[in-house]
From TrEMBL:
It comes from Kibdelosporangium persicum. Its cofactor is pyridoxal 5'-phosphate. Gene3D superfamilies: Aldolase class I. This is L-lysine 2,3-aminomutase (EF-P beta-lysylation pathway). PANTHER family: L-LYSINE 2,3-AMINOMUTASE AQ_1632-RELATED (PTHR30538:SF0), LYSINE 2,3-AMINOMUTASE-RELATED (PTHR30538). Signal peptide: none annotated. Keywords: 4Fe-4S, Iron, Iron-sulfur, Metal-binding, Pyridoxal phosphate, S-adenosyl-L-methionine.
Length: 463
């Protein structure tokens, strides 16, 4: 019996792509969907769904993702197909019907745009108050393209890094990619960041994120990175990226692949930690020779690789998938780091997994791991007050409770502290939980918003 990788390689060997095409980066978006359908045999129903949903939510793939990662023998259920192709069910049925209708009867551009904006506004484009709560200020002026939520870490969104090599259907930063400047985080250059860092020496970590900063050329990335290295108090540079999954050529065959590795070496030689925060959603992304080669080349620079991803229905809601992925990460010398909970934005109803199910999936997978892979934590919600981990379930005289812990918090006093909430088999986010009366007052206040409603001195989130 052929493995999934073998059947995908067969698609390649049928001449769908020649090797030059497969290593030349080309973005493929909604305007190319007819070409993709003809090339790979996309069924009419799936094609209609992509056309409708991609008017609202971003859609982008590339030849590597299409020819090597997606298993075309298994669509539409294939997890990698679900990962990158908009699906029927991601929008409310009425919204999808209206869009199909408008497009079919050739609604005016204005009618379609109004409908698209209305649907987008209902999808909570900036979860966890990111636009209000996490934007740092200098002399009373808000700094664009930055977030500061946790004392030690500032997030930096370089303007030229606000796209990705392909887009994940579940992306919680989808609002970055729809061409609306009001919804976008983007810093034109590092000058204000550097001034801010010099005034905040407690910030030891800068997370360069997006989008995906690795879409930038090496020289562009250097222009953002080098000024940060001039700030002595910065000890760790993190780069949030899914490029190893979606375009590993960035580190192997791209024209400036070697240059980017030299840049990584330069960061390490400056005495800083360089942490590549790699986003892998499925073990298949780690199976290919070129992905393995990319990881080995990154490691050889002295950079550390930490792996994280959300738990997503239709993509990776299976303990075997996580166990295989964490093992593959460990085998590649990377550190399994976080299993996140899908955030409260976008088509979340399609992708969400209840916390109780997520905990079961995490534990089932975790139990099978060798000790060195048990660095991973989850399921974790990156919520308004901070990162909240679901640790367990306990039966008490008051009934069944969730055991939770503040892994990270706006208020450093809350970090590491446990609390409880009433068990629910359906709750999928913090705001759907009822806190147990035993929850400490400061944690309860932070969670119910009494603290979070004020503009905090600190604010952020991670990719
Ligand atoms: S790589 Fe990250 S930022 Fe880009 S689409 Fe996927 S989740 Fe969103």
């Amino acid at each position: 019996m052929r493995t999934g990788l073998e059947s995908r390689l067969e698609v390649m060997s049928l001449g769908v792509l020649n090797s030059a095409e497969a290593t030349r980066f080309r973005t493929i978006g909604p305007q190319h969907i007819g070409e993709v359908a003809a090339r790979y045999g996309l069924p009419a129903d799936a094609l209609e769904a992509v056309r409708a949903v991609s008017q609202v939510l971003p859609f982008r793939v590339n030849d590597y993702v299409l020819s090597t990662l997606v298993d075309w023998h298994r669509i539409p259920e294939d997890p990698l197909f679900q990962l990158v192709f908009p699906q029927r069910g991601m929008l409310k049925p009425d919204d999808e019907r209206k869009l199909i209708e408008l497009s079919g009867r050739r609604g005016t551009r204005r009618e379609i745009a109004a409908e698209v904006s209305r649907i987008r506004a209902e999808l909570n484009p900036h979860p966890s108050g990111q636009k209000q709560l996490n934007v740092p200020e200098l002399a009373g002026t808000e700094l664009p393209g930055m977030q500061h939520k946790y004392r030690e870490t500032v997030l930096y969104f370089p303007q030229q890094g606000q796209t990705c090599h392909a887009y994940c259907t579940y992306c919680f930063r989808w609002a970055q990619f729809i061409g609306d400047a009001d919804l976008r985080f983007a810093a034109p250059g590092p000058e204000l960041l550097v001034r801010y860092l010099r005034g905040h020496p407690a910030v030891s970590d800068v997370l360069i994120t997006g989008g995906d900063p690795m879409v930038m050329s090496t020289e562009r990335l250097r222009s953002h990175l080098e000024p940060i290295l001039a700030v002595d108090t910065v000890q760790t540079i993190r780069i949030g990226t899914k490029s190893v999954a979606y375009w590993p050529h960035r580190f192997v065959t791209d024209a400036d692949a070697d240059d980017v590795l030299r840049l990584f070496e330069q960061v390490v030689a400056s005495g800083r930690n360089l942490a590549v925060m790699a986003h892998f959603s499925h073990p298949r992304e780690l199976e290919t020779d070129i992905a393995r080669k990319a990881l080995a080349r990154i490691r050889a620079t002295g950079a550390l690789i930490y792996c994280q991803a959300p738990l997503i229905a239709h993509v990776n809601d299976d303990p075997r998938v996580w166990a295989d992925m964490w093992r593959a990460e460990l085998a590649a010398g990377a550190v399994p780091y976080y299993m996140f909970v899908e955030r409260d934005t976008g088509p979340r109803h399609y992708f969400e997994v209840p916390l109780a199910t997520g905990l079961e999936i995490f534990r089932t997978a975790y139990r099978t791991l060798p000790g060195l892979a048990r660095t991973v934590r989850g399921p974790v919600m990156s919520a308004t007050p901070g990162k909240v981990m679901v640790e367990g379930v306990e039966d008490t005289p008051r009934g069944r409770l969730f055991q939770l812990r503040m892994l990270q918090a706006r208020d450093p006093e809350l970090v590491g502290r446990p609390f409880r909430a009433r068990f629910s088999s359906t709750a999928a986010w913090l705001d759907q939980l009822e806190l147990d009366p035993s929850a400490p007052a400061d944690i309860a206040a932070a969670i119910t918003g009494a603290i979070g409603a004020q503009k905090p001195a600190l604010s952020g989130t991670t990719h």
